[in-house]
Write a structure and sequence with these properties.
This protein has 318 residues and is α/β, with parallel strands linked by helices. The chain has two domains: 188 residues, HUPs (Rossmann fold); 102 residues, GMP Synthetase, Chain A, domain 3. It is built from ten helices and nine strands. The termini are far apart. The relative contact order is 0.13. The structure holds xanthosine-5'-monophosphate (XMP). Xanthosine-5'-monophosphate binds next to loops. It catalyses: XMP + L-glutamine + ATP + H2O = GMP + L-glutamate + AMP + diphosphate + 2 H(+). Its EC number is 6.3.5.2. It is an enzyme of class 6 (ligase).
């Protein structure tokens, strides 16, 4: 019988046997899988685990600092690397979603490789790969958007990718990962987080990305997500977020005509992201959220709610 406790015992022992006294590097994303993998490895090898958490500047509002603090509080040996500027430079002027993904993926790899090179004698690369990822990478149809969107599609082989691989979650499913995480004492709020795409807000700002657009979208997203939490809706939704549209629309404020940005809110129900239905959020919630966004976020004068299901619409707009 599979239980989190037996899984943890067996996995810790297997990791110790596999990597011995070698050093291991792992990239933390703030997501459930990489976090649970890190805590398991930390339990097995302690300070020989070197975690790297990269801020690509496209995370949610305050997320880099708060998640980094959380990681440190969990006793992880983690280095936070703020590479926001580098990502913005790599993205400057790019409008095509796939080009933006490639630029973000490539920059991440460069930053991670630079950091990995600062560590001496690392032998292993740990990853939070879970069973569905394993299936996905060998299946013809691909997993979430695999064939439609090039998620981490980058050329060349940086040095850290030549390391030996350790993937402690390779045989288990998401719900099992969450149970293991809970048994390891990881904060339930962290374990219950919605999925968030690797390119982050970079694919939720339609068209080209600027620091100002990131700031606007972070504010809008924070109001929406905090509202979902306050209204007890967060856990009923599989994934939610806001998109900054590349159009201005006319509005009116006092006697003035405005010509400002429009944002779309999206919340979906799903089990694996392959198909999804838009969520019938209460009108009252949408009304309050819309008012708060328009009143508080400078530069936004219109909010719409996305009522498209997948297929044919995807969850992300890019
Ligand atoms: P779509 O938009 O294809 O998204 O319906 C399905 C799920 O995948 C996530 N997604 C991504 N995740 N890199 C990621 O790590 C990406 O480039 C990417 N594109 C989409 C999306 O957030 C949803 O959960």
């Amino acid at each position: 019988d599979w239980t989190p406790d037996s899984f943890i015992d067996e996995t810790v022992e297997a990791i110790q046997e596999k990597v011995g006294n070698d050093k291991v590097v792992l990239g933390l994303s703030g997501g459930v899988d990489s976090t649970v993998a890190a805590v398991l490895l930390n339990k097995a090898i302690g300070k020989n685990l070197y975690c790297i958490f990269v801020n690509n500047g496209l995370l949610r509002k305050n997320e880099f600092q708060s998640v980094l603090n959380q990681y440190e509080g969990m006793g992880l040996n983690v280095k936070g690397v703020d590479a926001s500027e580098r990502f913005l430079e790599a993205l400057a002027g790019l409008e095509d979603p796939e080009l933006k993904r490639k630029a973000i993926g490539k920059t991440f790899i460069e930053v991670f490789d630079d950091e990995a090179h600062k560590l001496t004698d690392v032998k292993w690369l740990a990853q939070g790969t879970i069973y569905p990822d394993v299936i996905e990478s060998v299946s013809a149809t691909g997993g979430p958007s695999a064939t439609i969107k090039s998620h981490h599609n980058v050329g060349g082989l940086p040095d850290f990718m030549k390391l030996k691989i350790v993937e402690p979650l390779r045989a288990i499913f998401k719900d099992e990962v969450r149970r293991v995480g809970a048994t390891l004492g990881i904060d339930p709020e962290l374990l219950g987080r919605h999925p968030f795409p690797g390119p982050g807000l970079g694919i939720r700002i339609l068209g080209d990305i600027t620091a100002e657009k990131v700031r606007i979208l972070q504010e809008v997203d924070a109001i929406f997500i905090n509202g979902l939490k306050e209204w007890g809706l967060y856990d009923k939704v599989w994934q939610a977020g806001a998109m900054l549209l590349p159009v201005n629309s006319v509005g009116v404020m006092g006697d003035e005509r405005t010509y400002e940005k429009c944002v779309a809110l999206r919340a979906v129900e799903s089990t694996d992201g392959m198909t999804a239905d838009w969520v019938n959020l209460p009108y009252e919630f949408l009304q309050k959220t819309s008012n708060e966004i328009i009143n508080k976020v400078k530069g936004v004068n219109r909010v719409v709610y996305d009522i498209s299901s997948k297929p044919p619409a995807t969850i992300e707009w890019e």
